[in-house]
Design goal:
Layout: E1 2-6, E2 9-17, E3 20-25, E4 46-51, H1 69-84, E5 89-94, H2 96-107, E6 112-118, H3 129-142, H4 144-154, H5 158-174, E7 191-196, H6 206-217, E8 220-224, H7 231-234, H8 236-246
Parallel strand pairs: 3-4, 3-5, 5-6, 6-7, 7-8
Antiparallel strand pairs: 1-2, 2-4
Helix pairs in contact: 1-2, 3-5, 4-5
Length: 253
């Protein structure tokens, strides 16, 4: 297992495959394990790098997550890119990882080539975000399948991690924290916004939000007609083809 040190703590990462480096960034309450079943779809064309953000998966635990969690995790992503010393890497972030990917590119565009931002709310959190989050997390912790996913990703302390993450996101919403370090108009890297119409965990008007972001940043948009959250998982094979084409590989529909 590979680790690098960030602010005196160990962060886990792994590398598999050959080709252009692509860093996959997991969402909240998940870990890099969420991408493991998808690896055969990518590793023949890409050098896939996985990371467990601090407090998740195989990385060191933290006392609590900050309210500006996605900016902090962008700092961890930048540190990983510097550690690996790749000339440029692509970033694929899903759910919370989408905010992380965009923030990393906004802060250090020279380290990043292209960005895929999958299944997220966009520039702001929806007005009912906090209310829906509490309901969703409370229900998920009691659901055998959801609890099994948490445990698979995190280990025996999954419930504590979920609670810490929920607390951080509620503070972010309550304090109306900005979700990006800089304006999206300053984004210099090509970006693909991806999602699915069947996703019940993103804001209801996310399509309109994506169109607004595209207007500000020049991003491309690809929306699947069906699929649960996140699209990169529920539309696995087609998503791999879409992402592959965007990252200038020879995937075909």
């Amino acid at each position: 297992m590979s680790y690098f040190t960030y602010q005196s703590k160990k962060i886990y990462y792994s590398e598999q495959g050959f080709g252009k480096p692509v860093v996959f960034l997991h969402g909240d309450t998940a870990s890099s394990k969420m991408f493991e079943p998808l690896l055969p779809l990518y590793t023949e064309k890409f050098k896939v790098i996985l990371i467990d953000f601090l407090g998740n998966g195989k990385s060191d635990r933290v006392e609590k997550f900050p309210a500006d969690l996605w900016q902090e995790q962008a700092g961890q992503t930048i540190a990983l890119l510097e550690h690996l010393q790749y000339e440029k890497a692509n970033l694929v972030g899903t759910s919370g990882g989408a905010w992380v990917a965009i923030n990393a590119a906004l802060e250090r565009p020279g380290l990043v080539e292209r960005i895929v931002a999958d299944s997220f709310d966009g520039r702001t959190l929806a007005e009912d975000f906090a209310e829906n989050l509490v309901k969703e997390r409370s229900s998920a912790k009691k659901n055998e399948q959801a609890a099994g996913f948490y445990g698979w990703c995190q280990g025996d302390d999954w419930e504590e991690i979920v609670d810490k993450n929920t607390d951080a996101l509620l503070r972010c919403a309550k304090e109306k924290r900005p979700l990006f370090w800089k304006s999206l108009e300053q984004l210099k890297n090509p970006m693909l916004l991806m999602g699915s119409k069947g996703d019940e965990m993103v804001r209801k008007d996310f399509l309109t939000e994506y169109e607004t972001i595209a207007g500000l940043s020049g991003a491309e948009i690809f929306i699947f007609e069906s699929g649960f959250h996140p699209a990169i998982v529920s539309n696995g094979e087609q998503a791999a083809r879409v992402i592959g084409r965007f990252l200038n590989c020879d995937y075909r529909r």
